[in-house]
Amino acid sequence: MVHVMSNNAASGGVRRRRSGFGLARLGFAAAMILATPVQAQSDQMTPIAIPAQTDAIVLGTGKLPGATAPEAWHSQYGSVFARNVTIATLTPFLPDPSKATGTAVIVAPGGGFKTLSMENEGYDVARALAAKGVAAFVLKYRLNPTPEAMPAFEKSMTAMFSSIARAPRPKPDAMMAGLAPQIADARAAFALVRKRSAEWHVDPTRIGMVGFSAGAMLTMATTVAGGDAKPAFIGNIYGPLAAMTVPAGAPPLFVALAADDPFFGNSGFGLIESWHAAKRPVEFHLFEQGGHGFGMYPKTTTSTGWFDEFTRWMAMHDLLKPAK
Questions:
Q1: At 9, which CATH number?
Q2: Is the pLDDT of residue 33 over 70?
Q3: Which of 42, 100, 143, 226 is 20 to 30 A from residue 205's alpha carbon, by CA?
């Protein structure tokens, strides 16, 4: 496991910074990855009833234009996934008031913008953050439509995987336009948490965002093009790491990736270099093994420790201490 850290460090020795919103360099399809854990779990997609989600709050960004298939959930890899999400919601996981730090995190699960890993990269992450005194909010953002019938959905996912290598690389503006609904959902999530910050014992200046795979892509897009969202800190967990233009005053960035990630493990670390060259705080953990989509799954690889490293990083930035 390699740990690469920088906190406003000099940029000497860093390779030439590339311009543009660099996530496009990997191609939109490459970022639209189903978060698949490399472990001994069934990969069979089994339809399940939609959970009650009694605590979920509708964000008010409207129904996804043109969507017709109803929301559906399924189990896979010992976890649960949602698809055909047409109405965005935010589910709070609040800490015990005696442990509350005032820090909050918007949690963006992955799933290739076609599904959402609601448990492994959503609820389980939020519960673990709440146990640390952090108010966590799982963002169920709107997704690209998929076939309603499970066999057709499985076929469409197979086609998506097979097309990743030959997918055209879109221009940055086109890619950002394609993420407009999801960015709007993220902005609405930040606005809601700030609006109810007193009720939820959250410091409105200490709201961050952590995303996984496609959720990491959304986290970076929200940082760059999210307008008033302005995350105070961000986490990119096995998302694309292509170079990008770093916005002025960019927030501290935490990155975790496995070297054997089949999608992003051999694509370079331009994002890290961009943050480092811009003299913005960045911490990078490259785990030897872990594959893609490890999330909160217990594994024998050191990638399981990403969450502990993330919360240590938060503590280093005084985000686990009550605000003065």
A1: 3.40.50.1820
A2: no
A3: 143
